[in-house]
């Protein structure tokens, strides 16, 4: 929302604890022309994974967020994988009447 992109969501997991976000465009790609020599393993877009993980932690959801595919690395799409590490304790966050 803050970056002005709307990703599509795919979920191919039967346990429903992981899904993928596929943004139509990656705003960070516009600022990268070419990787420095000897630094092809850099992932400039890891910033997005940190933003998503931090936002999930703010609402008490532990998650592993990683890039599965990246256009900067030559893939056809950018895909961010999100896996929830544990279920939230519903009793802890339930409103008390």
TrEMBL record:
Q: Which domain of life is it from?
A: Eukaryota
Q: Name one GO cellular component term.
A: Golgi apparatus
Query: Which keywords belong to this entry?
Result: Endoplasmic reticulum, ER-Golgi transport, Golgi apparatus, Transport
Q: Does the keyword Endoplasmic reticulum apply?
A: yes
List the GO biological process terms. Golgi vesicle transport
Classification via Pfam families? TRAPP
Subcellular location per the Swiss-Prot or TrEMBL entry: Endoplasmic reticulum; Golgi apparatus, cis-Golgi network
User: Would you identify the family this protein belongs to, as annotated?
Assistant: Belongs to the TRAPP small subunits family. BET3 subfamily.
Q: What does this protein do?
A: May play a role in vesicular transport from endoplasmic reticulum to Golgi.
Q: What is the name listed in the Swiss-Prot or TrEMBL entry for this protein?
A: Trafficking protein particle complex subunit 3-like protein
Gene that this sequence comes from: TRAPPC3L
């Amino acid at each position: 929302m803050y970056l002005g992109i709307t990703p599509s969501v795919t979920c191919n997991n039967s346990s429903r604890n992981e899904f993928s976000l596929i943004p139509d465009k990656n705003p960070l790609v516009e600022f990268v022309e070419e990787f420095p020599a000897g630094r092809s393993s850099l992932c400039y877009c890891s910033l997005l994974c940190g933003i998503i993980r931090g936002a999930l932690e703010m609402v008490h959801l532990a998650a592993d967020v990683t890039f599965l595919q990246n256009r900067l690395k030559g893939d056809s799409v950018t895909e961010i994988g999100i896996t929830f590490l544990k279920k939230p304790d519903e009793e802890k966050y339930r409103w008390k009447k």
